[in-house]
Design brief:
Elements (H helix, E strand, L loop, with lengths): L3 H14 L28 H5 L13 H4 L11 E19 L6 H7 L36 E21 L2 E14 L2 E10 L17 E30 L2 E31 L2 E8 L2 E24 L3 E8 L2 E17 L11 E17 L2 E8 L5 E9 L6 E4 L4 E3 L7 E10 L4 E11 L15 E13 L2 E17 L3 E19 L1
Antiparallel strand pairs: 1-2, 1-20, 2-3, 3-5, 4-5, 5-6, 6-7, 6-8, 8-9, 8-10, 9-12, 10-11, 11-14, 12-13, 13-16, 14-15, 16-17, 17-18, 18-19, 19-20
């Protein structure tokens, strides 16, 4: 006889299965495609990127328009510069499943290993078939739990021009530019998605109401992908109000679009038999159910930046403030459902029907970003060395999403964490500058099962680059290596997620 403790543990596991009831909701990590990517603000300016993304106090060219417009008046001549970026990305997920004592075969099936096991006969009698509940349960496709996706792309990053002038006896500068403000690219996949999800730890599970029942779980593969960018057309102005003290402002008119794609491929219908509150057996029915949502999104909004820059001989301080802003996302998508649910072994289930339909959906989302700021400090201990540090606070956990489609207002992201950025520059000669840096890459989501609720996933971006001065011509280049690793942890399994990126950026400038 099982101990009461063992029985309680099985009740908790099965109760976790029941903690979500809608078959249309993806597993916790596989949330539907909505505002993913809008948290990915781009660092503009190749010198800034090679120095760890610092720019609040270290910006000294036309790209200051996008980081701290107050620094524009550091320019001494008219300048125009343009840049592009090449990115390669490698995303992958590896799953490890924990066997359940009563149902060891279910984890073997999710691992994709049942295909190597021979089906036993009944009571050792060859040719005598087992009952539906007793025979070896196998998957009906060749999908494995682990996956990897590689991608690459090349795109323009920025084009900016700035000109210094004098107004009322004060040095000033005006600039205008267009740049990628947000990189919307997003991809996620889970080959063992379920609804309700087996092993979900939050929200807290509740006890099942019947001690002898059958739990039904939809098992499917889920994929989502978004590609696109939001660009900003940005004019700006800077004025030196006191020796070394500059103020400035810029306003970005945001516009952009993305291609959105979601797909859900049914893998099976899992029936878990409950006996006295404990999982006693399970069975998998064949199922074909494919659902795709393909569409586009367009984005619009206004992003203002207020800047302050104070410069002395051996140090500088910069402050960049972004007031509250709202981005509007208008989306359209075509939904196609092709579902044939055939139950070959469970007669009481009425799944012998064909449902195929297609329809169109559209809506508008308003994403309200709270006040944010970046504080920067630059030290120049010698004429050859520059050390820059930025502290950025974006308050993503306070972002509000208002959807006209659902009529609700939610907080889609996690975390109000500050990100640190560090950069260094060494002037090897009048012709060559060497640079390096590091910045934190704080995500807008918290991994499932995180020990600290709403603690965001964190990655790191390492960079180095060089600047070449050829008289009026300036060439800046940078390489960035980005690594993000996090784990989604459940009572039933652990998913190891990795995203690795290599980014090459080049910028060409001409000063008249």
């Amino acid at each position: 006889m099982k101990s009461s403790l063992d029985k309680k543990m099985y009740v908790v596991i099965i109760a976790a299965v029941l903690s979500c009831t809608s078959i249309l909701v993806a597993q916790p990590a596989a949330s539907p495609l909505s505002v993913q990517g809008l948290d990915q603000f781009s660092v503009i300016g190749v010198r800034s990127r090679s120095m760890g993304g610092t720019g609040a106090a270290s910006a000294n060219d036309a790209s200051a328009l996008f980081s701290n417009p107050a620094a524009l008046s550091r320019l001494t001549s008219f300048e125009i510069r343009g840049s592009g970026i090449f990115i390669t990305a490698d995303r992958q997920q590896t799953q490890e499943w924990v066997p359940m004592r009563n149902l060891p075969g279910i984890s073997v099936m999710f691992e994709g290993l049942t295909g190597t096991i021979k089906t036993p006969d009944s009571n050792g009698v060859p040719g005598l078939p087992l009952s539906a509940w007793s025979k070896l349960q196998k998957q009906y496709d060749n999908i494995t739990p682990n996956w990897e996706k590689k991608s690459s792309r090349t795109q323009p990053l920025s084009l900016a021009a700035a000109m210094p002038f004098t107004i009322a006896g004060m040095n000033a500068a005006a600039g205008v530019g267009v740049a990628q403000m947000m990189d919307l690219d997003n991809y996620y996949q889970n080959n063992n998605s379920m609804s309700p999800y087996l092993g979900q730890q939050r929200p807290d599970p509740f006890l099942i109401t019947k001690l002898n029942d059958t739990v039904h779980v939809e098992w499917y593969q889920y994929r989502r992908e978004r590609t696109g960018s939001v660009y900003g057309i940005t004019p700006g102005l800077s004025v030196t109000v006191l020796p070394g003290l500059r103020v400035g402002a810029s306003v970005a008119i945001l516009t952009g679009s993305s291609d959105d794609n979601e797909r859900r491929q049914g893998r099976g219908h899992i029936n878990i038999a409950i006996s006295n509150g404990t999982a006693a057996n399970f069975m998998v029915d064949t199922v074909f159910c494919a659902q795709s949502q393909i569409g586009t999104s367009t984005y619009s909004g206004t992003n203002a930046i207020l800047g302050l820059h104070f410069q002395q001989e051996r140090y500088s301080i910069g402050l960049s403030v972004k007031p509250t802003m709202t981005i509007t996302r208008k989306w359209d998508r075509d939904v196609t459902i092709d579902s044939t649910l055939r139950s070959r072994r469970v007669r009481y289930a009425n799944f012998d029907s064909l449902v195929a339909r297609a329809y169109h959906e559209s809506g508008t989302d308003n994403i309200r970003f709270p006040f944010s700021y970046t504080l920067g400090i630059v030290l120049t201990p010698t004429d050859k060395w520059t050390i820059a540090f930025d502290y950025e606070l974006r308050n993503l956990g306070s972002v509000e999403l208002t959807s006209s489609y659902t009529g609700t207002t939610t907080h889609p992201w996690s975390g109000n964490k500050a990100a640190m950025r560090l950069g260094i520059e060494y002037l090897a000669s009048d012709l060559l500058a060497l640079r390096g840096g590091f910045r934190e890459d704080i995500q807008a989501f918290s991994p499932d099962g995180s020990a600290i609720i709403d603690e965001p996933a964190r990655g790191g971006i390492y960079s180095f680059g060089a600047g070449i001065n050829l008289g009026n011509i300036r060439i800046d280049c940078a390489y960035e290596y980005s690594l993000l690793k996090y784990q989604d942890i459940y009572q039933s399994n652990v998913n190891y997620n990795t995203r690795e990126q290599h980014q090459f950026v080049m910028e060409l400038a001409y000063r008249f």
